[in-house]
Design goal:
It is a single chain. By secondary structure, the protein is of the alpha/beta class. It folds into two domains: 141 residues, Aspartate Aminotransferase, domain 1; 203 residues, Type I PLP-dependent aspartate aminotransferase-like (Major domain) (Aspartate Aminotransferase, domain 2, 3-Layer(aba) Sandwich), CATH 3.40.640.10. The longest helix has 36 residues. Strand 7, helix 9 and strand 8 form a beta-alpha-beta unit. Helix 2 runs antiparallel to helix 12, helix 4 runs parallel beside helix 12 and helix 5 runs parallel beside helix 6. The protein has a seven-stranded mixed beta sheet with strand order 3-9-8-7-6-4-5, with helices on both faces. It is 45% helix and 16% strand. Bound molecules: pyridoxal-5'-phosphate. The site of pyridoxal-5'-phosphate has 13 residues, from helix 5.
Length: 394
Amino acid sequence: MKPLSQELFARLEKQRADHLYRQLRSVDSAQGARIEMNRREFINFSSNDYLGLANHEAVKEGALQAVRDYGAGSGASRLICGSLKLHHLLEEQLAAFKGVEAALCFSTGYATALGTIPCLMASGDVIVVDKLVHASLLDGARLSGAKLRVFQHNDLGELETILQWADKTVGSEGNILLITESVFSMDGDQAPLRELVALKERYGAWLMVDEAHSAGLFGQRGSGLIEELGLVNQVEIQMGTLGKSLGSAGGYIAGSRTLVDYLINRARSFIFSTAPNPASSGAALAALKLLEKEGAERRQVVWSLAQELRRMLLPLSKESPASLIHPYLVGDEQQALCLSKTFLEAGLMVPAIRYPTVRKGQARLRITVTHGHTIKDIECLRSPLQSFSKDRIQ
Ligand SMILES: *Cc1c(COP(=O)(O)O)cnc(C)c1O
């Protein structure tokens, strides 16, 4: 038997050789369109803080006030003595924001998926997921013990074939859960939600939609693509995160009162975990309040920046962008790393996204536009991108 430490070292060496090794970078400033690393300033095209709220005065004040009122820690799990009034307020606001009866917060988006899916589905049930859903949703589905089927990204034909099979398989006893994202995290494209709703209704399935990258950015209230498409009453489980557009940290489920009561009673990552800390709940609450006032204006700013970027990346495209996430597909992992380094040298933070975040051979740059960018910032991307396109062997 090889000693484990030796084995770990060897695995890491292999990862390095495959250009898949990952390292942490220390950021020495607050989040924003500009960040400081190693005493140098970078224009940050990698953040999910789309509306620029993570370091917004009002949101920070929300966190600070919550710490003053409720302390630094919440003391226990929600079901013991950690269910602070602040959490209840936040959940009421989230339910109103999402246009549903109730909402429930978890400490992270990851814990939200991991707790929610397995308490709803078990062996005898079928979970059907889009091939590109986030790792948290896949992990939750695996943990449930239900049969898991994956359909090619946004492929409605394949999905229907799977749903027909699932319908027969579960019989009268089991249930079917269809899971997708409204805006995909690494591709920036949208799920065909209307068609997915029609399909899940035809086969009596439930639909869970993760709005991590669309909450804050779509719809009249800004609650997401589900709202924009008028599907609030047809999506049984809306999932969201507080760490992206809302500038804080945490995750939530929004849906019926029954769903939320059920999660309170059954979701293990909710029950067996300390309640979200006051600072992050206070910040999220302040962010929701801010969005009521300034959301539309902020959205307009970022969408017009995204339009600029899209014009630059696809000079002929007149289409409006589907999201603030712009993938620039490279393919080869080493080349993606190399390109990301070129950007870094030019003072631009544009991360290379590699396996296992995306499939092998699908490495890419992921450029995100956020509220604090200027047109000039976006212009800075042009020359490194152009030099790469020229070198590219097609
Ligand atoms: C970020 C993300 C999550 C996880 O949320 P955290 O709060 O960061 O744990 C879940 N789903 C999607 C699509 C995400 O992008």
